[in-house]
Amino acid sequence: MKNPHFTPNYLAHLAKDIPSGLVVFFVALPLCLGISLASGAPLFAGLVTGVVGGVLVSWLSGSQLSVSGPAAGLTVIVLNGIATLGSYEAFLLAVVIAGVLQLILGFVKAGVIGLYFPSSVIKGMLAAIGLILILKQIPHFMGADEDFFGEMTFFQADGRNTFTEIGYAFSKIQLGALVIGIIALAIILLWDNPKIKNHKILSFVPGALLAVLASIGINALFLNFYPALAVSSTHLVSLPIIDGFNGLVNELSFMSFDQLTNPSLYVVAFTIAIVASLETLLSVEAIDKLDPHKRRTPNNRELKAQGVGNIVAGLLGGLPMTAVIVRGSTNLAAGAQTKVSAFVHGLFLALSVLFLAGFMNLIPLSALAAVLLVVGFKLTKPMLYKYQFKLGHEQFIPFIVTVLAILFTDLLIGIFVGLSIGIFFILKANYISPYFFHKEDHKNKEVIRIKLSEHVSFLNKASIILTLEHLPNDSHVIIDGGNSEYIDYDVLEAIQNFKKSAHERNIFVEVIKVDEVPVTEMH
Fold first, then answer.
1. In terms of domains, do 171 and 226 share one?
2. Confidence check: pLDDT of 454 > 60
3. Which one of 148, 308, 436, 504 has the lowest number of neighbouring Cβ atoms within 10 Å?
């Protein structure tokens, strides 16, 4: 099933996709390792899932920009699942079963649920992720955080929380790590300057790559000339060293069927399938909103791709996977255009494990924290809050509640709190049939008139989006809001995104009395 809105020329975008994939790789590498450690799984498990997510799932997915891999949001589920089933090998069978369940969800078209998350909640999720990235990376930036790189929840394993960790970090600064972090951040910001971004040669070199290479060089100088400033091993990337094919096989884990008759196995599998599917649908919806081309991911295809990915990851000893918003937003911020970028990131993960572990273990985490600080700021720019406030309290209150709920709990709990607030505002409005659909034939062009009803609420969003997506190519579409007293912002945004991308299907769009709304985009 091809995305009807966009058929990319993968070769034409290699100049942007390969550097973007490299940037995502640098961010994903410590995340994979950290999530493995936090999950109580073998260190290698997260890397296996990162490789499968990049090399395989990127091509099975209909998304051009999302990146799949192990997710911080699943760490508690994995940790509890391993404890419940008694071994990691038994847990792997649950991962495979979860993958099968996701495949089934995709075939029964359960992905439509992704269309029912309000725009204000999705934007709140993006803003919250940006804030959390900034707050969580500050201690790593200063070389003072012992928690895993990529930890996202408010309450941490060491007994501190997001805010007290920052206070602690200021009292335990590792000067060398801080110096490296500042220099890396300066390089990334400098490379984001339009003069360099538009330069024919310099634009091919990612600022994050230069920052990482510089950080390795600076730490080498510290080791040789200023040992007191050298970054300690706990604040460097820590990849396992693989010695040949036998060493690789020894690092892999394989599932056990010992718990096949244990009902708890299926409870764990079902939990993984549902939570991973929800997190994936939320992530791709968020990335689609940031996509400058306004491409939309086929949700059912995404569930099938994730299902296959989890089956393969489970068979190879990997953690369960989702589409991950941190990696996806990093991918977009780095300038990715197509799924080649996600594939390249997976390829680099595989190569680093097999051949470059010694070199990768020289990378200071403070340099990688600098990359995520920039990504975090792009996700939670002050302009986003200003836009949401201008849209009125029906949009701003669910947005800000989602931000605060995610910040003080975790991703899924925060989303459901924000969703509950959004539903409250939705239920204040009456739900009426959203439009009247009429076809006419004029000469050689089919004319389709969509006349919106008096009151069009968010509940009508999915119906209208699906109608617009299935309109025939080469048609003339008239969207008439002349009778409408109220059209929800999400519906206005959907119409505006459709109008922007319709030319790719040779559809001429005529809009009558439908307001334009500000649409937040990442630049």
1. yes
2. yes
3. 436
